[in-house]
Amino acid sequence: MKAKVEGLIEDYIADFSKTSAISWGKPHTGYARADDPLFARLKEIVRPSHELPRDFLDEARTVITYFLPFLEEVVESNKEGRYSSRLWGIAYIETNRLINEMNKYLKNELIKMGYQAAYVPATHNFDEEALMSDWSHRSAAYIAGVGTFGLNHMLITESGCCGRIGSLITDLEVEPTPRYGRELCLYRADGSCGQCVKRCVNDALHFEGLDRHRCYKMLLENGERLSDLESLADVCGKCLVDVPCSTGIPRPEE
Question: Does the pLDDT value for residue 254 go beyond 90?
């Protein structure tokens, strides 16, 4: 069934790309058991109201997650200056649209095969005071073995951290993906690097943690500058680009 699910994802992305303003690299898909104890721990790690897979689907057995990597031209476009590039904003909007539409498609395909499925929107489903969501796609992807967290709070995958994550909950039972047995972030692994902190343009990211409100202020500033786009591009991404983990797993010498 893994091959079937991944084939559906790759085919949908290929078709979507034909009419989209951008394209994507090869997706990275991971699977977690819905009853994996780490989901319950998110209530301690993220917030007490963080939901469990079975809050969305009573008979949930598997959480399917996937990382959609941005192409090099999108990453390169966002390197210079304080503000996000227009292409980065377009990539954010188009990828959110892809995730939402593809999850509808995947849900319908699973229903055709006799299974159930549920999903959460790609973005804008968060508490605007705490600036935290009750379902973290990134945390789900970590649990599903797609990558490990970087100092910049993004997930580092085989294709780096520049991209977006979607997730789907289903009663289809799939063998879980093994999680990485090591830290992919150089700073978390051995204290080296930390370039993402230097890249932050609004003094929001520090070695001690992330000031979510300063970060969000920058996102909204970019959203205002890109307000002519078809939907809100509350983006930044400066701490994701021009760093060793932008487009792949970094090597220690980097």
Answer: no
